[in-house]
């Protein structure tokens, strides 16, 4: 699949880090470093603009290394970039640790996954089919 992309950053396009990776790492495009204090969030620009095909989305997901080593996540994870959005791709980082974290220009801040999706039309109904689970919700399928 080919997706048109404009790169106004000083960095390489997002890329897969291994042969079978699902996500491509995306880098911060910053004029100067941004310090995230504990529990602070910031919108991190990437300098990238995408033309996503209709029927697809780009999911913006946290990087496991940043989460594990520094407690850095994405507030609305996964974030969704819709096919009709043409603005700059930005990443909403949050610092969930108890220490400051400095986001540097060029740092890999998230991963992007291209995913197909369906568009639904709701079909109003008076009742739904029966299942073994039924209306059992949170915690209803076991203790673990």
Automatic annotation (TrEMBL):
<dbReference type="InterPro" id="IPR033704">
    <property type="entry name" value="dUTPase_trimeric"/>
</dbReference>
<dbReference type="InterPro" id="IPR008181">
    <property type="entry name" value="dUTPase"/>
</dbReference>
<dbReference type="GO" id="GO:0004170">
    <property type="term" value="F:dUTP diphosphatase activity"/>
</dbReference>
<keyword id="KW-0479">Metal-binding</keyword>
<dbReference type="GO" id="GO:0046081">
    <property type="term" value="P:dUTP catabolic process"/>
</dbReference>
<dbReference type="GO" id="GO:0000287">
    <property type="term" value="F:magnesium ion binding"/>
</dbReference>
<comment type="pathway">
    <text>Pyrimidine metabolism; dUMP biosynthesis; dUMP from dCTP (dUTP route): step 2/2.</text>
</comment>
<dbReference type="InterPro" id="IPR036157">
    <property type="entry name" value="dUTPase-like_sf"/>
</dbReference>
<feature type="domain" description="dUTPase-like">
    <location>
        <begin position="12"/>
        <end position="142"/>
    </location>
</feature>
<feature type="binding site">
    <location>
        <begin position="63"/>
        <end position="65"/>
    </location>
    <ligand>
        <name>substrate</name>
    </ligand>
</feature>
<dbReference type="GO" id="GO:0006226">
    <property type="term" value="P:dUMP biosynthetic process"/>
</dbReference>
<keyword id="KW-0460">Magnesium</keyword>
<comment type="similarity">
    <text>Belongs to the dUTPase family.</text>
</comment>
<dbReference type="InterPro" id="IPR029054">
    <property type="entry name" value="dUTPase-like"/>
</dbReference>
<feature type="binding site">
    <location>
        <position position="76"/>
    </location>
    <ligand>
        <name>substrate</name>
    </ligand>
</feature>
<keyword id="KW-0378">Hydrolase</keyword>
<protein>
    <recommendedName>
        <fullName>Deoxyuridine 5'-triphosphate nucleotidohydrolase</fullName>
        <ecNumber>3.6.1.23</ecNumber>
    </recommendedName>
</protein>
<comment type="function">
    <text>This enzyme is involved in nucleotide metabolism: it produces dUMP, the immediate precursor of thymidine nucleotides and it decreases the intracellular concentration of dUTP so that uracil cannot be incorporated into DNA.</text>
</comment>
<dbReference type="Pfam" id="PF00692">
    <property type="entry name" value="dUTPase"/>
</dbReference>
<keyword id="KW-0546">Nucleotide metabolism</keyword>
<feature type="binding site">
    <location>
        <begin position="80"/>
        <end position="82"/>
    </location>
    <ligand>
        <name>substrate</name>
    </ligand>
</feature>
């Amino acid at each position: 699949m080919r997706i048109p992309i404009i790169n106004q950053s000083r960095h390489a396009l997002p890329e897969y880090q291994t042969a079978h990776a699902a996500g491509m790492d995306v880098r911060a495009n910053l004029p100067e470093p941004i310090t995230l204090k504990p529990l602070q969030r910031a919108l991190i620009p990437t300098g990238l603009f995408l033309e996503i095909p209709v029927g697809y989305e780009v999911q913006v997901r946290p990087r496991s290394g940043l989460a594990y080593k520094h407690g850095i996540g994405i507030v609305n994870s996964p974030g969704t970039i819709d096919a009709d959005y043409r603005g700059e791709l930005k990443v909403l980082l949050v610092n969930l640790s108890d220490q400051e974290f400095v986001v540097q220009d060029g740092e890999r801040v998230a991963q992007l996954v291209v995913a197909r999706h369906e568009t639904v039309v709701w079909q109003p109904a008076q009742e739904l089919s029966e299942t073994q689970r039924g209306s059992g919700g949170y915690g209803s399928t076991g203790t673990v």
